[in-house]
Amino acid sequence: MNFKNPVTNSHAHWVAVLFLFLTTLFIRLPFFFRDYTDPDESTFILMGQSIADGHLPYDHLWDLKPPLLFYIFGAIEYVVPHSFIAIRFFGVLVVFTSALFLMKIAQKTRIENGFLVALLYIILSSELGNLQGLMSEHLAVFFILPGLLCLLEKRNLLYSLLAGICFGCALLCKLSYAYAIVALLVCFLLLNWRKNSFEQIFKSNLILLFGLLLPFFLISIPFLVEKKPDVFIDSVFLAPLEYGHAQQYSFLQKIERTWWIILIGLLVSYLSIKKITKENKPLAIASIAILLGTIYTFFSSGIVNGHYLIQVFPFILLLAVGIIIQRKFKLRWRFLVLFVILISVESLVEYYRLAKSYSQNSTFYYRPGFQVVNELKSRGLDNKKIFFADYHIGYWLLHQYPLTKSTTHPSNINRSYLFKYFDVQRNSIEELKYILEGIRPDVVVSKREQLSFFSPDSGENAYFKTTMNKEFTILQQDEKNRIVIWQRNKK
Question: Considering the entire predicted model, what is its pTM?
Fold first, then answer.
């Protein structure tokens, strides 16, 4: 099959679309039944449930991510309550639709191998590491790609408005695209400076800026109605800004942690510039701007988690497969099917685990989070006050909420510099004491006999171990599955 333009005829187009959808579903389906694929996804689910129950983001529970992300999860949970399958299937639709946007961008700019770019994005954003859940990066890509497509269209005011709205929505799912979008808009301003009159450029960019700010204004309305604009400003802007500057890595440490992705970005950008043509110049410049702007965000924080890379996969692929490699790939469907099966190692392993779990226990839900919840239910402890130091998806499974805003994500309690943004005037160890001595949970759940998000020799873990030994009894300890459940001693 010729991948240059999969829409040259209707039949080839719909076969390609169906193949992309089935590939996305095949890779991600076995993970529909996991308790969590990444702790962040569990936090998004909890924040979404809070919104579905009528609460404002950040006012009831708290997390560092932007609010549109939580509203999307809230909408899913409102329509289909307490369904992992609904959330993960929505993730399939998000990744699949993003792949279609990539195909459309390739078609629009007439670069080679648009179908292959889309297919590789599905694989890279679904198969490697803990990417099988619905992550903030998936949703940010889902919005930034149609924004880029609108920007590549004929520059009229409607497309400028739509591009701005898409970019604003992308930022409201993942603020780390901020440098990338600024770089993109500056590059397009310079690119069009000689082609259009000052009046056209001014109008177009003004409308684009209006479109970008519009989602921020709309999503702030509930906070304004509730007379809590400070909650919106603190949580959406100030807290992420402080988090970005809190790592305290030196320049050399940042280079040591991010050199490899910087090298990839610079190499791909350099080779793309050498291969650039008049026809694909706008796409090449846009992709390079987004790629390098995003990589700069990685460098400035000194952190490159696996799921962060979802943000750069589409643009590396557009540049590498679409612009640098200027030849058409002609592959047969049977080869593609075999390729997808062979490369989907993690999915195949998960299919095996599901089959094994169902044959032994008549359920697909076999993971530690479900085991913890089942154990608590069997002991009649599911309605007690529970502190999930790990497996915090257990709150959702038990129709409970975290005990404090600081435990919405288990790692938040280790970020005391953020406490002020949700009105907590304590440090980490004081907050831990407040939870264990003030709230006094009846049950504590962890992966081990210490807190995962503090160093083993920290004061917090010393206090935690002392309190557990003094006031709690271990009900279950499963080293293989990393489960420890404590119950408070009866007086």
Answer: 0.94
